[in-house]
From TrEMBL:
InterPro entries: Galactosyl_T_C, Glyco_trans_2-like, Nucleotide-diphossugar_trans
Organism name: Subtercola boreus
Pathway: Cell wall biogenesis; cell wall polysaccharide biosynthesis
Name of this chain's protein: Glycosyltransferase
Annotated region (Disordered), positions in chain: 1-55
Compositional bias of kind Polar residues: 1-10
């Protein structure tokens, strides 16, 4: 199942047919707030007890590769859903199986060439061809219980910012008929589920309490989101060409784009076989997991997801690589540096003043990328964390500094930590006039989407940063006596 190469032209396999009356369509007009309920922070509790006025239109995208029996079971389970059939389309995306998958009438099949592991590309291909307001992603070996779609899509249908993750349980289906009801036959055959994941859902109140690292609890085989959010976030990163990681990377981008995370334990789907970490004889499992962890560390540079000192990453592909007419998510791929914190210093009276400002910033935030006026970039070019203001950078948090100052290092570090821990929309540091403005990209994205400025807290705090003379003494600063 390969990575950044364009998708092959999709084709309808034998047995494919109409998509239950849900036609593919383009995205919503930009600048118009989405339909639904805007939420504050990650608090989806205002949606408790509420249901959509009408059942949402759902596109279920099932990724498949050489698993006909498992696919048969999953499609049989989807045919028994309580969600109205005329509001549901099922799209099987085949990642180059030896034999085209066989599907019942009414199920669409899209195929791409076998160029290695391309789960991300398969999901993008299905999403680009889907017509529903809500996108549900399933794997061929994960069969949902009858109420799965209704339970999983309720929150995204009410608020398009929600990324909902269902409860993936594990069972041994050996010898079981593919059309047997999984909600009856799977529990007696249940296999252990990952304890770390169960504990995370319990500790976070089903992700009601989430943070910048909660992407680790979003499992791609059992997620649903609105088309509006998926198109704003962009598709799955097709440069992932090994098993695992593409769902966590997408979830992190969704979080940064203002997503609300929610775990829905009532949305149960059964995976055929044990969780990967529990497979006996999987001696290469840890090595494979390490490859995934390094790939994610280069793309998700938040504390706890990257090394403490080693700097990984650099240019990271964003968007998907597509061919016109392919039916996949359209968009031009772009390579941009990614960092946790981006600091922009807009003016400085001299190179010496800028050096002191940048040095105090990087003491407080060593992993930051710092942008400075173009006139000074050549003098600081030896540090690749420093570049011109025009440089495009993707970040979780931005710090805008109107005029170079000498920051109090612990104070600036604490301000960054406060925005993160308290999930603020912004924090203005001031001494009567603005010294710096720290802004959460997550808050900025969501509030821009809704045309609101009250979905996250926006606070100010006094700052003891010192103004700099037009030409401060660098020897005194370096030596510690001035």
């Amino acid at each position: 199942m390969s990575g950044a190469a364009p998708n092959s032209q999709p084709e309808e396999a034998p047995g494919g047919g109409a998509s239950r009356g849900i036609p593919p369509r383009g995205g919503a007009p930009r600048g118009i707030p989405p339909r639904g309920i805007p939420l504050r922070g990650n608090d989806w509790s205002p949606l408790d007890g509420r249901t959509p006025a009408e059942p949402p239109s759902i596109s279920v995208i099932v990724a498949h590769y050489n698993q006909q029996a498992e696919l048969d079971r999953t499609l049989a389970a989807l045919s028994r859903q309580t969600h109205p059939a005329d509001r549901t389309e099922v799209i099987v995306v085949d990642d180059g199986s030896i034999e085209p998958p066989r599907v019942p009438p009414g199920v669409r099949v899209l195929r791409q060439d076998d160029r290695g592991f391309r789960l991300a590309a398969a999901r993008n291909l299905g999403a680009g061809s889907a017509g529903g307001d809500i996108l549900c992603f399933l794997d061929a070996d994960t069969a949902p219980e009858p109420g799965y779609l209704d339970a999983l899509t309720r929150l995204p249908a009410l608020s398009p910012d929600v990324v909902a993750v269902g409860l993936r349980r594990h069972s041994d289906f050996t010898g079981l008929s593919v059309d047997a009801p999984v909600e009856i036959e799977a529990p007696p055959r249940e296999l252990p589920s990952p304890e770390w994941l169960q504990r995370a859902y319990a500790d976070s109140l089903n992700l009601l309490v989430s943070d910048d690292r909660s992407y680790r609890f979003i499992i791609g085989a059992v997620i649903a989101c609105s088309r509006v959010l998926f198109e704003e976030v962009g598709g799955f990163d097709e440069t992932f060409t090994e098993y695992g990681g593409e769902d966590w990377e997408w979830a992190h981008r969704a979080w940064t784009a203002g997503a609300v995370f929610a775990h829905v334990p009532a949305a149960v789907a059964w995976h055929d076989g044990p969780e990967w970490a529990g497979r006996e004889g999987d001696t290469a499992g840890l090595a494979q997991k390490n490859i995934e962890t390094l790939a994610l560390a280069a793309r998700i540079p938040v504390a706890g997801s990257r090394p403490s000192a080693i700097r990984l990453g650099g240019d990271v592909m964003r968007g998907t690589s597509t061919e016109p007419g392919s039916g996949a998510m359209q968009g031009t791929p772009a390579r941009v540096p990614t960092t946790d914190v981006l600091v922009s210093i807009h003016t400085a009276p001299s190179l010496a003043a800028l050096v002191i400002c940048v040095d105090t910033v990087l003491q407080a935030i060593p992993g930051a990328i710092v942008r400075v006026p173009a006139a000074f970039t050549a003098a600081l070019a030896s540090d690749d964390r420093i570049g011109p203001l025009e440089r495009a950078v993707s970040s979780r948090l931005t710090v805008e500094v109107p005029v170079a100052v000498r920051f109090d290092v612990p104070e600036l570090r604490a301000a960054v930590e406060r925005v993160t821990v308290e999930q603020l929309g912004s924090l203005e540091l001031t001494d009567g006039s603005r010294i710096a403005l720290l802004t959460s990209q997550r808050a900025l994205s969501r509030e821009a989407r809704w045309g609101r400025h009250d979905l996250f807290p926006h606070l100010s705090a006094t700052c003891s940063a010192r103004p700099l003379a037009d030409e401060p003494g660098l020897a005194a600063y370096f030596g510690g006596w001035g």
